[in-house]
Recover the amino acids of this structure.
């Protein structure tokens, strides 16, 4: 759970603690991923640092569409994975990242 200054935050990083402005107004809750709009919002509201989880592994896209899979993955494997994650909130950044990691590992064989 590193505490990073604003200039070291990157798109796709997942927050490990809520981010509040100077007036203690919640800007982004724990578990959400940072996007370019949120980075601009942090600058506007005076956020200077944030706790984040470890950055996503290289090659993992955390900002893609929920439930997407690599093009080389066959339909049977994709259907099995979608069934496994059918009761999960695919809009949650952690669940989406787990799904994407699962699809990458399944596509490698």
């Amino acid at each position: 759970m590193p505490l990073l200054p604003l200039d070291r935050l990157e798109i796709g990083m997942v927050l490990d603690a809520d981010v509040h402005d100077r007036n203690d107004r919640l800007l982004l809750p724990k578990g959400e991923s940072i996007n370019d709009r949120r980075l601009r919002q942090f600058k506007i509201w005076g956020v200077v640092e944030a706790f984040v989880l470890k950055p996503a592994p290289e090659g993992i896209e955390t900002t893609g569409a929920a439930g997407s899979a690599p093009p080389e993955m066959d339909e049977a494997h994709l259907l099995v994975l979608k069934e496994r994650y059918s009761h999960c909130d695919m809009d949650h950044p952690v669940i989406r990242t787990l799904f994407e990691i699962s699809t990458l590992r399944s596509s490698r064989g």
Summary: The first helix runs from residue 36 to 44.
